[in-house]
Amino acid sequence: MKKSMIAALFALSLPLAVQAMPMGEPGRAGQCEMGMHKGMKHTGPHSLFKALDLSKEQRQQINQLMREQMGSAAQIHQRYLDKLPAADKQAMQDELQAKRDAHHKAIRDQLKPEQQAQFDEHLKAMEARRAERAEFEAWKAQKNQAE
User: Fold this and answer.
1) Engineering a disulfide at 30: which of 23, 68, 73, 122 sits with its beta carbon 3.0 to 4.6 angstroms away?
2) Which keywords does this Swiss-Prot/TrEMBL entry list (predicted)?
3) Cα–Cα–Cα angle for 85, 88, 94, rounded to 5 degrees
């Protein structure tokens, strides 16, 4: 039980850690300033693909492969999350929401009033899409149970 919970939390924290990592100027390789990778050059997949000078067809095929990889990783994450008890799932969701709210507040504090209004509208639109998606997923699950 503890091992699966640790594995699930670790799997969920990786994407957040990657997004939080400083990468230097946009479009340029940055130096990692964290942990055992300190000082190493990081180049994202986009800079690698630019360096390879791919054709349009190659870019499309690679994008498709990347989408498939992301989808399969999400399925693996979900499989482990499904094994967690409801209380742990709710605790994780609450913690993620608190972190998201703090992140949005920190961003909002950096914006001018007119930018804050735009940012708030964007967050409302994202929340509406999230609610619509949740409604769709519930409908889909209900339909699958009926079959």
Assistant:
1) 23
2) Signal
3) 140
For residue 116, the one-letter residue type is: Q
Question: What single letter denotes the amino acid at residue 139?
Answer: W
Specify which residues 31 forms β-bridges with. 41
Instruction: Show the domain range for 29.
Output: 2-84
Q: What is the DSSP string of 21-72?
A: S---STTS-EE--SGGGTT-EE--HHHHHHHHT--HHHHHHHHHHHHHHHHH
Q: Note the pTM of the prediction, 2 decimals.
A: 0.49
The string of pLDDT tens digits covering residues 37-62 is: 455 555 555 666 677 788 889 989 98
Q: How many domains does the chain have?
A: 1
Q: What is the dihedral of CA 64, 66, 71, 75, to 10 degrees?
A: 140
3-class state of residue 63 by DSSP: helix
